[in-house]
Amino acid sequence: MNFWMQIFANPELYAATLAMATPIALAAVGGTFSERTGVVNIAMEGIMLVGAFFGVMVAAATHSAWLGMFGGVIAGGLMALALAWPAIRLQSDQVIVGMALNVFAGGLTAFLLNTVYGYNGTPTSTPSLPIVTLPWISHIPFIGQVIGQHDVVVYLMFLFVILGHFTLFHTNLGLRMRAVGEHPEAAETVGISVVKIRYLGVTIGGMLSGLAGVYLSLGMLSSFEVNMTNGRGFIALAAMIFGKWTPFGAFGAALLFGFATALSIALQGSGVSANLVGILPYALTIVALTGLIGRSRPPAADGLPYVATK
Amino acid sequence: MPLYAVLTGLILGGVIMAIAKYNPFAAYAALFSGAFGSPTAIGNTLAGAVPLILAGLGIAVAFRTGLFNIGAEGQYWVGAMAAVWVGYHFPTMPWIVHVPLALGAAMLAGGIWGGVIPGLAKAFVGAHEVITTMMMSYIAILIAHFMVENGPMMAPGYVPQSPTVAASATLPPILPAVFLNSNLSDAFFIAVAAIVVVHIVLFHTTLGYKLRAVGFNARAARYAGMNVPLYTVLALGVSGVLAGLAGGVQMLGVDLQLTDTFQSGYGYTAIVVALLARNNPIGIFFASVFFAALSAGSQIMQINAGVSANMTDVITGIIIFFVATDRLYGYWSQKMRPRRPSSAAAIISGKGESPQ
Amino acid sequence: MTPTGRDHLIFRAREEMSCLALLEIRGLCKSFAHVVANADVYLDVEAGTTHAILGENGAGKSTLIKMISGLYRPDSGEIALDGAVQHFASPRDAILAGIGVVHQHFMLIPAMTVAENIVLGTERQRDAATPRQSRLLFNRKRAAVSVQELSESLGLPIDPWAKVETLSVGMQQRVEIVKALYRRARVLILDEPTAVLTPQETEELFAVIRKLNQDGIPVIFISHKLDEVRAVASTVTVMRAGKTVRTAPVADATAAQLANWMVGRDVILQSRKEEVAVGDSVLEVKNLRASDDRKTEKVRGVSFSVRRGEIFGVAGIDGNGQTELVEAIVGLRKVNGGSVHLLDRDIGHMSVGERIARGIAYVPQDRQQDGLILSFSIAENLQLREVSKAPFSRRGWLTRAAARKRAQQLVEEFDVRPPVIDASAGSLSGGNQQKVILAREMSRNPELLVAVQPTRGLDVGAIEGIHRYLLQLRAEGRSILLVSLELDEILSLADRIGVMHAGEMVVVMDNQNVTRESLGLAMTGKWSEKEAIS
Amino acid sequence: PGASALAKSSNANFKVGLVTDIGGLNDHSFNHLAYVGLEAAKAKYGVTVSVVQSHQSSDYFPNLSTYAQQGYNLVIAVGFLMDSAVQKVAKEYPKTKFMIIDDAITGHPNVMSALFDTQQCGYLVGVMSGLMNEQKHIPQINGKNVIGLIGGMNIPPVTSYMAGFIAGVHKVNPKAKVLIDWTNSFTDPGLGKEDALSLISKGADIIFPVAGGTGDGAIAAAKQKNVFAIGVDANQNYLAPKTVMTSALKGVNIATEIAIGDALHNHFKAGLNFFDLKNKGVGFAPPIAAVPKSVLKKVDSFIPLLNSGKINPPSSLS
Ligand SMILES: Nc1ncnc2c1ncn2[C@@H]1O[C@H](COP(=O)(O)OP(=O)(O)OP(=O)(O)O)[C@@H](O)[C@H]1O
Ligand SMILES: Nc1ncnc2c1ncn2[C@@H]1O[C@H](COP(=O)(O)OP(=O)(O)OP(=O)(O)O)[C@@H](O)[C@H]1O
Ligand SMILES: [Mg+2]
Ligand SMILES: [Mg+2]
């Protein structure tokens, strides 16, 4: 009992929750944009890796973490275009292309890491993004320790989740995006360019995934490690579905997963096999999904190539 | 698999290698000799294709039914654990009983893990199989680690690995004289048999017809009196059974024990295999051999041409990309391919059928 | 005061006076991979008139419309508005030019609200039609308000907040019309608008069309229904096999003539029924109760029976529980109460499969979603329901050859065009898709055929054929439960007619002593015995 | 010089192949160190070297065989994961010499196993930590007397460090609390960071990650929270010069270099070869200035005890 008290009374548990949720939430919101316009994005893992690597590369070269972040986001966007073009112009199978990009990204980043920096890894002189301390909030006893002091990207994540929701549900652009994802023909008949909107959605998705990668490499650390995403891109995919293709939903799912991860970290001392404790996040996700979430309905035209017969 | 796509990929890869100051010709020569250069190489390539074939078939069956089994990796390891466990217990059992028993255990384990649990979750609460199979996969791998890291399946001694399976449970090598000390074992025949069976079931039985019908248009299937939940569970079950079998034969034929790394990568490569083969069993054979060759060859490419292992991933990625974008080549012809309902993208978003 | 929809109508009407909107189609051609959909099409549409286009399924009507609305690009030929030749690169151009279209298959987004659907794509445009709105933000309230104003000023009231997926097809079409006019259409094109409407709704639609004509807006009206054309249009153009074969003032053409021009042969418009001895009851429904997906009870204790060798027609305005009733009978919807007996056997709790096995055949309302697997071949679709039986399979093994032979027979017998059993069902036109379904269901010579809207959207030729099949089945002593919104269909086919209203079967009457009027009355629930006799 | 140059050139036809496990050369751990040793040997003796990074477990056997087939004189297998593969190949190629790192293969005349008494260096940095935790005047030390220990996986090469470390801490500071965390991964620095932060939040002011690349995250966390960290395997001070107070060294590079030299000069030692403090196979990196001389003296005083075997730290967690 007291044991649990200690764990749940420790603000670090909730701070860690946020930290672990951030990359997943960012990528999941990105994926939401992509799929809301009708393009399945299973390449988030690869795009994150690319963002993480080029973030470090630019930061190391310019000695500016901010430029690094910029570079990582751009790299993510470009990578996403490699998904958008075949998906939109060639009606390619979006999942195959996505898998291709994942394999490609894994190889490319590792290859560049070794050829550019050698096996010692990226330069230790690489700057990292600043830790932000919120003015008064950080002084509030418990709350302050939870949300008062985080990497800047964590706060950007909050921003993008809200911005994402607002854009999708309260702007003209969002209306058009949802229309294109639900019924491209209908959108076309009222003069909306399905192609443009889809390019936009996928690119936004890529940039957010890129930012998620930057958070791992320049936010939490200031270096790049081979395959440092460790499947977070796929977890983000799950979070997006779990969140029923809405930014808030995706955020919620990411929080749940982040919390379970943080909890499994906190439970490490407990003597139970580390491996078994490590199951917690995955088991909890399944339970939550089957227990409370249930069916989630994707955008009607999600993943279906659209051909304008001319 | 379209040849020109592969060629484009290889050419582009060559250009990249040239830029990276490698000799692409030497590299590809090494790649090829590593994959097919000697009987041993061929043996290893074919052996490497076996788990891809089996897992790929499993994933294809799910796709055909409109389901995306993304957790074959975990099902593979669950199957592996079961096979090894049966394999090193009962060392006195006769071969003819022991092997089938071990493989049966592997299939059962994989089926339950990949099929029954996500299948039921999908059929009854609509939990998206992409999430459930993925999570179950992670769980399986953690359990596997637990088993050998001072867990119930750890072999006595220093190294965190399971005991090796009894001789009575191993799959004998094929023509050891020819493919001398390669990994090629009877597992290969099992894989080929699986291809035939899956092909027949899918295209020559009412079961296959119903699975495909559910995959294309679940509503129409329901209106036609088919039990959609049943076939959902069935499809994911078969999918898991095959992935589990992949793990099983790999253990009994090649690894012979669990070592403390549970990342075969087969489960993910198999997704690409299935997709590139358009979920066609015959195509899966060739796609699997192709990827096995790349993997085997890449090792020799490192040794003989000094090309970094990661470069193979780059090239592989490019090749897959160009296979997926094969319409590039027929771009001029306005004749549009009818949208494949087994289009994984359509499936991942929970739809087999495209609105007309 | 804010500029309301009425103001902008007047404002636009004035505009029209100055320049007559006059649509000219000159030698339009369009072919697809395998078919020539339009070959040398000519059409002149006068301002303020209604111009009907008649044509068989697959004649090319929709293709023509899609070219006029900028969805397809013509292979050759011209489209001229006000004498100015137009080159529509996209629907946007067509919209800006003032072309408003209600497509045959609605272009609405089910998951979105009425207001969202209507303003979609125009959020940025600012003029009398659309009150000032932000270029960036989408304001649900304001959109709803302007939609509401316009719809009311047009006499087409709709709830702007309603999600489209919750609306009846009639309502959805109203949304489409308002959507077109919201874009200030100068020409309104309706592709088979009445195929899905109840008689009442059809009447309302005609009123709207006349009103638009008065405002100077010409309407192109596509339909298969000759009497409707006669009722609303002033000029008619007939298409056959992609060509415009005839244009004439409606007044000068008899229904028979029009039919002949369409099909290229004489058509029996009134199918005759020979007497069939009705036997004992096959289907026995006793105070059945069932709810829709939103758990509201839509079938409130319905009782009736269908006897051997009879067609039992279920009439009623869409959404009065017909769908739920049928689904409960075929086993797709669980019953809350009451019983369903087939041949004195309680099937109320059997699965769909078991009921099929016991001899129920079913022609669902939505042929594409529920009736067919569009990506399967015709042959494969023909075995959808009985794949486990001969000749399609033996002991779980598909018997290809036999199945194909059977398919070939059916395709010929039911005149599916093209008669290529390996063609995918998705490539067929609506009429032929329906034929495939009927071929499948009727060829099983079932005890009971449940047919919902079997001729929806079909041309006279196809309708004639299908009616013939139904009567033939009846002649063979089978029973048919026919649900239709088309009174004429019911009146011409049914032996007995049950009228559904508000989930109850308010009356079951013998076809002999029924008039259109009394039926219409019953459908609106205003039914009393007295009127029946009179 | 001429003679040695001659010797070198003649050494060029002595070929050494290195097979990494799937951790690859970026593992910040033994794969990388073995490679460093290989390069050193190449520079020193002028032998011909080649390296292959295994992609999956099924590559081990083919890769080892390939080198053997191609007539390599010495084939080095990095990591116990190749235990069975090495035994199999060794039987098939008796003329080829094999070396396996972190494993105990016996009974093959052509296989040498390199084992590292990392419990010894773990013990020493443990002692250092235990003492440091009592230096309350040092700003990084919070006086809570808690130490954080992070393990990548529960496997011998990791646990021997940890077991020795714990013993060392308690030897000099019995009241110290050592918190143990596992990350189940050697390649997730993000997770490693959160793991360390969690330990720090529980009062730990010295973090010792034994988790390959995951450890980099832990060190980053220590740096961020201004507490001490201890590097592992190699001297990791370069990662955070003011934070990494020392590193527990595992001379995989040294062992590799020695083994190559021995094989080259025909005194290859089959069977178990232990690398410990005595033969400089393990040790600890020179501590940073923040570590008081007094502490360092105390730590050094344990070295002879370990060498003489008077102290025998446990090599596995009980
Ligand atoms: N996108 C397309 N691709 C290929 N063929 C098409 C396409 N659209 C229409 N067709 C073919 O062109 C012909 C005309 O089709 P269209 O839809 O214009 O007929 P219609 O007159 O509207 O028939 P209906 O009355 O059933 O709506 C048909 O044979 C149809 O199969
Ligand atoms: N039936 C209705 N009648 C009148 N106003 C309505 C109706 N439904 C919603 N509104 C108003 O429209 C605005 C948006 O409604 P809606 O519920 O769609 O927002 P929402 O989707 O919940 O937005 P968010 O997702 O940001 O919460 C609100 O101001 C709400 O008051
Ligand atoms: Mg909302
Ligand atoms: Mg049409």
For this entry, give a set of tags:
heterotetramer; C: 534 residues; alpha/beta; Rossmann fold; 3 domains; six-stranded mixed β-sheet; disordered C terminus; D: 318 residues; 21% strand; binds adenosine-5'-triphosphate; binds magnesium ion
Written description of the protein model:
The complex is a heterotetramer of chains A (310), B (356), C (534) and D (318). Chain A is mostly helical. Chain A has helices spanning 2-9, 11-36, 44-62, 65-89, 94-117, 141-147, 152-170, 172-182, 184-189, 194-220, 232-242, 247-266, 274-278, 280-293; strands at residues 131-133, 149-151. Chain A has one domain (2-290): Orthogonal Bundle (ABC transporter involved in vitamin B12 uptake, BtuC). A two-stranded antiparallel ribbon of chain A has the order 1-2. The longest helix of chain A is centred in the C-terminal third of the chain and has 27 residues, at 194-220. The radius of gyration of chain A is 20 Å and the shape is globular. Chain B has one domain (2-330): ABC transporter involved in vitamin B12 uptake, BtuC (Orthogonal Bundle). Chain B contains 14 helices and no strands. Chain B has helices spanning 3-19, 24-36, 39-64, 72-88, 95-125, 129-148, 187-204, 206-216, 218-223, 228-255, 266-276, 281-305, 309-324, 344-348. Chain B is globular and about 60 Å long. Chain C has 3 domains: 21-263, P-loop containing nucleotide triphosphate hydrolases (Rossmann fold, 3-Layer(aba) Sandwich), CATH 3.40.50; 281-359 and 446-533, 3-Layer(aba) Sandwich (Rossmann fold); 372-444, no CATH class. Chain C is 34% helix and 24% strand. In chain C, strand 7, helix 7 (199-214) and strand 8 form a beta-alpha-beta unit. Classes of the chains: A mainly alpha (310), B mainly alpha (356), C alpha/beta (534), D alpha/beta (318). At the B-C interface, helix 8 and helix 9 of B face helix 11, helix 12 and strand 18 of C. The site of one adenosine-5'-triphosphate has 3 residues of chain C, from helix 5.
